[in-house]
Amino acid sequence: MKNINVRKVLVILTVLVMTSTAAFAAPILNDTIQVNFQGKDVNFGPYKVYIDDGRTYVPYRQFFESIGYEVKWDQTTRTASAIDPLRISTSVDREQKVDAALWQLSAEARACFWQSFNLATLRFDQAVEEKKEGEKLAVIADIDDTLVDGVMYTADVLQDGEWTNTAFGASLASDACLPLPGAVEFMNYVVDKGGTVFYITNRDPSLREVTYSSMKKMGFPMIDENHIFIRETGMASSKESRRAIVEKDYKVVLVLGDNLEDFADLFPVKEGVDARRDAVDKVTDQWGDKFIVFPNAVYGDWEKAIYLYDKTKTPVQKIADKKAVFDEYKYIK
Ligand SMILES: [Mg+2]
Q1: Nearest alpha-carbon partner for 89 in 102, 76, 107, 108
Q2: Which of 42, 119, 128, 230 registers the highest number of CB atoms within 10 A of its CB?
Q3: Going by CATH, does the domain composed of 93-329 fall within 3.40.50.1000?
Q4: Ligand 1 centre and the CA of 51: distance in Å?
């Protein structure tokens, strides 16, 4: 094997261990080989090991197969790959989202969406009853993971798919793109009862056409430039200015979203987890009243808050930040 280009991050770490700090038993030809791998002794063999210039070489395929990895050899590119059966993604960040994405596919998640749209319907009915003469009622909704399920894209990305607007757009155009439970029904209910719906999304302008076509295909009402506010080039991620445009002419009775930024700029986005929790607790009467929040365990400001929005942090630093959150809340200090 001339070119060992390992595909899994974990495996890359392994190779470093093997070439620098691995603890070998006596390097005897044809002996059983012992390698300390991630803190555990792995015994395999007997196989030949070679010593050259003070460095010990062990057989790549036999080692990784002995710990359950699948090993592939591509003759064309002369590349060896060792694939960890316990991982779906090569990226640590993505791997950590696998269970969260699976939860979004669960029956419990569906029940949360039905429950939330049922509550939204009750609240909208209440607003219609209390409506004053001349008032125009509106509902503002985020799109992704509030009205439209993002899991068709997430499931691909988590298996090392592309994380680009082009790939996201392709997923939106596919038949796998589906509304979340109760979303189409609720948005049409609002319109049928005389209300107006607005969609405020941070999707990229390059996704404008596919947003219109896919939303129409799914059956959402009022899909046009007067009712969908995309995050235009140069616009802040905050949705406050776009909400203000609606509030000028309408009484906004409900805001729907999966991220606190969808509701108001009340929630400090760069002050960490505790500050956001406190901010939520300061407006307890809004939840389930004007604000209806939907579960999204895969991504959102909740995660960025763990890293204090520092995009320069390495995966190792992010793990340390996650551990610090746990340590703050665990009962053994
Ligand atoms: Mg969203």
Answers
A1: 102
A2: 230
A3: yes
A4: 56
Q: For residue 200, give every residue at least 6 positions away whose Cβ sits within 8 Å of its Cβ, in sequence order, or none.
A: 140, 141, 142, 229, 239, 242, 243, 246, 262
Beta strands in the chain (DSSP E): 31-37, 40-47, 50-52, 55-57, 70-74, 79-83, 137-141, 196-200, 228-229, 251-257, 291-293
User: Do the beta carbons of residue 13 and residue 23 sit within 8 Å?
Assistant: no
Sequence-ordered list of residues with C-beta below 8 angstroms from that of 149, at least 6 positions apart, any chain? 104, 177, 178, 179, 180
Domain ranges of the chain: 9-87, 93-329
Query: Positive or negative CA dihedral for 222, 287, 150, 237?
Result: positive
Distance CA 148, CA 179 (A): 4
**172: which residues sit within 8 A by CB, 6+ positions away?**
148, 153, 207, 210, 211, 214
Q: What is the distance in A from the centroid of ligand 1 to the CA of 149? A: 9
For residue 263, report the distance from its CA to the centre of ligand 1, in Å.
11
CA separation for the pair 152, 133 (Å, rounded): 44
What's the CA-to-centroid distance between 187 and ligand 1, angstroms? Answer: 16
Distance (Å) from CA 143 to ligand 1 centroid:
6
SS3 330: coil
The answer to whether 225 and 256 are in contact (CB under 8 A) is: no
> Three-state DSSP class for 15?
helix
Which residue in 202, 198, 151 sits closest to 174, CA to CA?
A: 151
Q: How many residues does the chain have?
A: 333
In whole angstroms, what is the distance from residue 58 CA to residue 23 CA? 12
Bridge pairing between strands 137-141 and 196-200: parallel
* Distance of alpha carbon 127 from alpha carbon 120, whole angstroms: 10
Token digits for 92? 């640590």
Tell me: the pLDDT tens digits for 19-28?
333 444 445 5
Tell me the per-residue pLDDT of 175-186, one tens digit each, with 9 for 90 and over.
Answer: 999 999 999 999
Whether 31 has a pLDDT exceeding 70, the answer reads: no
